[in-house]
TrEMBL record:
This is histidine kinase. One of its GO terms (molecular function) is ATP binding. InterPro entries: HATPase_C_sf, HATPase_dom, His_kinase_dom, HisK_dim/P_dom, HisK_dim/P_sf, Histidine_kinase_KdpD, KdpD_sf, KdpD_TM. It is found in: Cell membrane; Membrane. Its EC number is 2.7.13.3. It comes from Streptomyces griseofuscus. One of its GO terms (cellular component) is plasma membrane. Residues 620-831 form the Histidine kinase domain. The chain crosses the membrane at residues 380-397, 409-437, 457-478. It is an enzyme of class 2 (transferase). SUPFAM superfamilies: Adenine nucleotide alpha hydrolases-like, ATPase domain of HSP90 chaperone/DNA topoisomerase II/histidine kinase, Homodimeric domain of signal transducing histidine kinase. Residues 836-845 have a biased composition (Polar residues).
Length: 864
């Protein structure tokens, strides 16, 4: 069965009209005859959204009981049995009520898609998992309901439902989003203009990035090499010199002038080494460009202008920023330079900016790599010296007679110059031509090809031998220089790569992307298989159009071990590059093994934690639960005994013992269940505005009346918390304090306001806890000091902290002045930044409820 398609309406904030837009699309599909049903849509008591549900078939919800109430969730089985063509599922990031089929609604949607049902859903930008920290820094609210980015990225269509902050605030003020009693608080907190503007920008940029991915994929699939200037991308060409910082800052200013501008700094190293760059300076420039929001790239290429243009066209750049040449005037005789060449060959689609700097015309200032491939200019110069040099020298010597010995020395000098410039072949040509000229013009008999004096024969032979030896030495030195430079280049690349891998800074995909950039390939993939007869599977890939099935189909196939291979597409690499490629492959295998070992370690850690909890539970059952059970059974057996006539006092005492044992059992079992919920992540707080003085006194029911002093002023601001969780947290803290306080000293429970927080303090005068143990006492199954086994299983403080953090608060331990321990429970008050009151349908979401319509259907912009 073909997998269903997912369409998502994405909004920057609640109320922009995502649900309205989804329902309007459903009506259009239904009118066209498409089988469309409402699997789950929450209208949040918004009349216009509720009206849009009329005329659409709705699948009945599944009723679940939770904490004494009934809540409706999407009935996945009913939708699967109904098998519509399209299902509407609102609020993709919603956390389901405990007891549901899946923990998250997006997991329900995955089941529908796997069954071949198309799904239309909604989500707000703040619920994307990767943006949690960014949204918290903007709004001050940590989102507890999130959806993995990959789920949204896989959507076939993402439609942005956009609205200006001013229009959204007007819609809020008119009562079209929340109830009137919540409007003022929302407008002054989450729905401030600055928050809405920042969230809107975040949504626009995120969707723009997705559009950019689709565009690059399309260009790659259709082999589009022409630049499409849909977005300003500025490539900065770096040489490793100090002027690179100036170029990066200039490019960043250019990027700021265009919406969504992007800066890509690239350093192109010759294949014969990195000798033309300062690694320290390149590291500084990498940090600078990343701090400015750009990216740094390292590419290998012998033809720097061509490599730079290929890179720019490959990333669909619109501008290139280069620095003015550092070469002096006389150095231009060797060519026009990189800047002029790039500007000439860039074409009409690429703008080239030549930026002046302080190093202009001051000379290269950097060592220039000289490999075995001496360069076209040097080779031509060597041939010119080897052929024309002896002829010119002969013309000059014909006008003056300085002796045969001096003539030979001058011809030898020309040969050495030809060897230094062009290597062995020009030098051999020079020595052969020079020997003939010496014989014809300067060795008696003159102007004849014979030699009369045998001594002159010896001299010419020595001249020939010396010239050939010098030329051979020069050529050998050039080849050794090339080998040393290339080995140095390889060592620097591999040391940098190995450093990142050993520090764990490089993922498999990042490593393959660096491999692709280093060798200027179109794609790179790491394939593996279990045995020689098993099919290949892709463990990681980078670039567009990678080979995913057979390594031999790629342009470059590099085996890595017995059942792993690197597959690269783009061009055929020379044999000398395969050594570095093999090292990349070995590192990729190491990264893959490390990732799998980390996953296994995480699983083992989870299993170990589960085993530890099970062991502690067995210990609790074996003693802490068995003791009150034994007391209860003994008391009941005594009461039922017909042999003893119990007095009313004895009967009351036995019943009191039964009640105390049952209370103790209830307390222990409650803590065990709460710890299990915390461990499995199923605690779902129902946040609302409450008064501290309403909840804290209720938490003191489990301790003797004369053991606690209560100081909670009625003038405290209201807090945002779950009453039930808050009561359990305070109750555990008080019971713990009473347990360790001396009999004559009362526990003090006080509350006070501090900035935008309200702090509840539980103060005891017990033995206290050392600083090094203050964090450890909050771990499960920890009992400080020599507490007896009957003192509990050590879960009270762990449960209290877990509940506090679930409500967005904190629980810490401090020393009590004069001795003892103070537990500080800090919670948000309504004077600070706050999440909107949650309903059961949006439980555990600190942000406002999911979107809804306003007075009219909102404007929408389809981006992808």
């Amino acid at each position: 069965m073909a997998r269903g398609k997912l369409r998502i309406y994405l909004g920057a904030a609640p109320g922009v009209g995502k649900t309205y837009a989804m329902l309007a699309e459903a009506h259009r599909r239904t009118e066209r005859g498409t089988d469309c049903v409402v699997a789950f849509v929450e209208h949040h008591e918004r009349p216009r959204t509720e009206v849009m549900l009329h005329g659409l078939e709705q699948v009945p919800r599944k009723e679940l009981e939770y904490r004494g109430g009934l809540f409706g969730e999407m009935d996945v089985d009913a939708v699967l049995r109904r098998a519509p063509a399209i299902a509407l599922v609102d609020e993709l990031a919603h956390t389901n009520i405990p007891g549901s089929r899946n923990a998250k609604r997006w997991q329900d949607v995955e089941e529908l898609l796997a069954a071949g049902i198309d799904v239309i859903s909604t989500v707000n930008i703040q619920h994307l998992e990767s943006l949690g920290d960014v949204v918290e820094s903007i709004t001050g609210v940590r989102q507890r309901e999130t959806v993995p980015d990959e789920v949204v990225r896989r959507a076939g269509q993402i439609e942005l439902v956009d609205m200006s902050p001013e229009a959204l605030r007007r819609r809020m003020a008119h009562g079209n989003i929340y109830q009137p009693d919540k409007v003022d608080a929302a407008l002054s907190n989450y729905f401030r203009p600055g928050n809405l503007t920042a969230l809107r920008e975040l949504a626009l940029l995120w969707v723009a990035d997705r559009v950019d991915e689709y565009l690059n994929q399309y260009r790659s699939e259709h082999r589009v090499s022409k630049i499409w200037g849909s977005r300003e991308r500025i490539v900065v060409g770096l040489t490793g010199g100090p002027e690179g910082r100036t170029l990066i800052r200039r490019a960043a200013r250019l990027a700021e002038k265009g919406a969504g501008g992007e800066v890509l700094a690239v350093y192109i190293a010759r294949s014969d080494g990195l000798t033309a760059a300062s690694p320290k300076e390149l590291a500084v420039q990498r940090t600078l460009v990343e701090d400015l929001g750009g990216t740094f790239h390292h590419v290998v290429g012998d033809d720097i202008p061509a490599a730079l243009l290929d890179f720019a066209r490959g990333v669909n750049a619109t501008q290139i920023v280069l620095g003015s040449s550092r070469r002096k005037a006389w150095q231009y005789v060797f060519g026009p330079g990189v800047g002029a060449t790039v500007a000439r060959e860039s074409g009409p689609d690429l703008d080239v900016h030549i930026v002046t700097h302080e190093e202009v015309a001051k000379g290269r200032g950097l060592p220039v790599a000289r490999g075995a491939r001496l360069g076209r200019t040097r080779i031509l110069s060597g041939w010119a010296m080897g052929v024309a040099g002896p002829a010119v020298l002969a013309l000059l010597l014909n006008s003056v007679d300085i002796g045969l010995a001096n003539d030979m020395l001058l011809f030898l000098a020309v040969t050495v110059a030809a060897a230094l410039l062009g290597g062995l072949l020009p030098a051999l040509a020079s020595v052969a031509f020079g020997s003939l000229l010496l014989n014809y013009f300067y060795t008696p008999p003159l102007h004849r090809w014979t030699i009369a004096d045998p001594k002159n024969i010896v001299a010419i032979v020595i001249f020939f031998g010396v010239a050939v030896s010098v030329a051979s030495v020069v050529d050998l030195a050039a080849r050794r220089t090339h080998q040393a430079a290339r080995l140095r280049a390889e060592s620097e690349i591999l040391s940098f790569l190995a450093g990142n891998v050993l520090r764990g800074e490089t993922s498999l995909e990042e490593l393959l992307e660096r491999l692709r950039e280093t060798f200027a390939m179109e794609s790179a993939a790491l394939l593996e298989r279990q045995s020689d007869v098993e099919p290949w599977t892709c463990a990681g890939r980078a670039g567009f159009g990678p080979v995913l099935e057979r390594p031999e189909d790629a342009d470059v196939d590099m085996p890595v071990g017995d059942h792993m291979a690197l597959a690269l597409t783009g061009r055929v690499l020379p044999a000398e590059d395969r050594r570095v490629l093999a090292a990349f492959g070995a590192q990729a295998a190491v990264v893959l093994d490390r990732r799998r070992l980390q996953e296994e370690a995480d699983q083992a850690r989870t299993l170990a934690e589960g085993n530890r909890i099970r062991t502690a539970l067995l210990a609790a059952v074996s003693h802490d639960l068995r003791t009150p059970l034994a007391g209860i059974k003994a008391a009941v057996s005594s009461l039922r005994s017909a042999d003893v006539d119990w007095s009313e006092e004895d009967r009351a005492e036995l019943l009191e013992g039964i009640e105390e044992g049952a209370d103790r059992l209830d307390h222990l079992v409650g803590n065990l269940l709460d710890m299990s919920r915390l461990q499995t992540g199923t605690v779902t707080p129902l946040i609302r505005e409450i008064d501290v003085d309403e909840v804290v006194p209720m938490a003191l029911g489990g301790v003797p009346e004369d053991s606690v002093d209560l100081d909670v002023p009625e003038t405290l601001p209201m807090i945002l918390a779950d009453p039930g969780l808050l009561e359990r947290s305070v109750a555990n803290l008080v019971e713990n304090a009473v347990k360790y306080s001396p009999g004559s000293r009362r526990v003090l429970v006080s509350a006070s306001a501090l900035a935008d927080r309200v702090e509840v303090r539980v103060v005891d005068r017990g033995p206290g806890v050392p600083d090094e143990a203050k964090d450890r006492i909050f771990e499960p199954f920890q009992r400080y000091g020599d507490a007896p086994r009957g003192a509990g299983v050590g879960l009270g403080l762990a449960v209290a902290r877990g509940f506090a953090e679930a409500m967005g608060g904190t629980l810490t331990a401090e020393d009590t002045p004069g001795g003892g321990l103070t537990m500080v429970l800090s919670l948000r008050s309504i004077h600070g930044r706050q999440p909107v009151t949650e309903s059961p349908e949006t439980a555990s979401t600190p942000a406002p409820a999911h979107g809804g319509p306003g007075s009219a259907e909102p404007e929408r912009q389809t981006l992808c």
